[in-house]
Design brief:
alpha/beta, Rossmann fold, 2 domains, seven-stranded parallel beta sheet, two-stranded parallel ribbon, 12 helices, 11 strands, 15% strand, binds NADP nicotinamide-adenine-dinucleotide phosphate
């Protein structure tokens, strides 16, 4: 029989991989089981994981939308003295249909909660959620926020015996020193837009705060919560956000462009031009005018692509509601320290674009 077991769903994802790193050397877990949706994501995780992580994590593959197959894990894993389930698997898309988001977030949570129950009395459930949602008094900006909250409500109403604890984090970016992260969600598609299409202007409220946090700090806070759970301490929900220390959108964009240009200079690529932020009202007017007057010479990304991407970010660029930090051990490091490595790591993994090379010897 295994002593203290930790079962982590979504261990191959951005947060899950960070947690695996944080747990690699950490007591008190006798066994760490990591759940993957498929063989490919498991193989990719093992290929990039450090040796201590590979040695620590017992991997299993399971499609968590499949209730009976998920429940069958209880038998396959064998008994353990105590189990803590960390449920980080989710459909994190901001554009999923309500049906798909419910399946990925609510049904999957129910299936994992049933598994937790089947793992025996005393099993604890730690639900990983977003600081950009809440179970009450919240106007949801997309199906992701709505279904993450719906899953939390389900846990509280139907699975109180698992004594669920909620760990919510804000937008995760790469490791605070190395910039490393396993998936590029959140602000990364915006970086891609700036790097690939070099738009001269973008819409958004200059003073809106964009709450970003580095993955190693999030993982350390989650690991600390898990330790409190294992020690049997009284545990309360944690919100890992940066709150008032979060950058204003104007500062985040300026900082991202500066970091991007440093990375481009190191790769002998010309800098992206200055980026102006305009209010949405002006943006909407400009977009209509460019079309109506068929203006040439203003280099803008392809219309459908730009509109889709801006549509995804718009709710966050207009409305910056986010839960304040609560119950963390340390404050989030300053964004000015971790933005540069995050952008640099992302940039180094983009396909080379020789068309924008600087003349030889140029540094931008
Ligand atoms: N990243 C952020 O900025 C952020 C911000 C706030 C909250 N969160 C929360 O943090 C948690 C993790 O997010 P993340 O950013 O790490 O997301 P992610 O990188 O997309 O990872 C999600 C994980 O869920 C797993 N998964 C999805 N559907 C599955 C299924 N049917 N069966 C088995 N596994 C499935 C995926 O497994 P495979 O890799 O094996 O396919 C993946 O590892 C989520 O609960 C999310 O709501 C994330």
């Amino acid at each position: 029989m295994s002593a203290a077991r930790l079962l982590v769903t979504g261990v191959g994802g951005a947060v899950g991989s960070g947690l695996a790193d944080a747990l690699a050397a950490a007591p008190p877990w006798a066994e760490v089981v990591g759940v993957f949706s498929g063989q490919r994501s498991r193989d990719a995780f093992l290929a990039r994981a450090s040796q201590p992580v590979r040695a620590r994590v017992r991997t299993v593959v399971r499609d968590l939308t499949d209730g009976p197959a998920t429940l069958a894990l209880a038998r396959e894993l064998g008994p353990a003295a105590t189990t803590t389930v960390v449920h980080a698997a989710a459909d994190v898309s901001w554009t999923s249909s309500l049906q798909a988001a419910r399946r990925g977030n609510v049904e999957v949570t129910r299936n994992v909660a049933e598994l937790a129950r089947a793992l025996g009395g005393g099993t604890r459930f730690v639900y990983v959620s977003s600081a950009y949602t809440a179970v009450e008094g919240w106007e949801y900006r997309n199906t992701y926020e709505a279904t993450k909250a719906e899953a939390e409500r389900l846990l509280r109403s139907d699975y109180a015996d698992l004594r669920p604890v909620v760990f919510s984090c804000s937008l995760v970016v790469g490791h605070s020193r190395t910039g490393a992260i396993s998936r590029f969600h959140g602000i990364y598609p915006l970086l891609g837009l700036i790097d690939r299409h070099e738009p001269p202007l973008l819409p958004g409220g200059r003073d809106r705060r964009i709450d970003i946090v580095p993955v190693d700090w999030v993982a350390a806070e989650l690991a600390a919560l898990l330790r409190r759970v294992a020690d049997g301490d009284a545990v309360t929900d944690v919100v890992a956000s940066s709150g008032p220390a979060a950058p204003r959108l104007a500062d985040l964009l300026a900082g991202s462009v500066a970091a991007l240009n440093r990375a481009r200079a190191a790769a002998d690529r010309a800098p992206v031009p200055e980026l102006t932020l305009v209010p949405f009202r002006r943006w909407d007017f400009l977009r209509r005018s460019l079309d109506a007057w068929q203006v040439r010479g203003v280099a803008m990304p392809p219309r459908a692509f730009l509109d889709r991407l801006i549509g995804v970010y718009r709710p966050y660029f207009e409305d910056d509601r986010v839960l304040p930090p609560t119950g963390t051990v340390r404050a989030c490091p300053p964004w000015t320290e971790f933005l540069d490595p995050a952008v640099g790591y992302w940039f180094a993994r983009q396909p080379a674009r020789p068309g924008t090379l600087l003349p030889t010897g140029g540094t931008g």
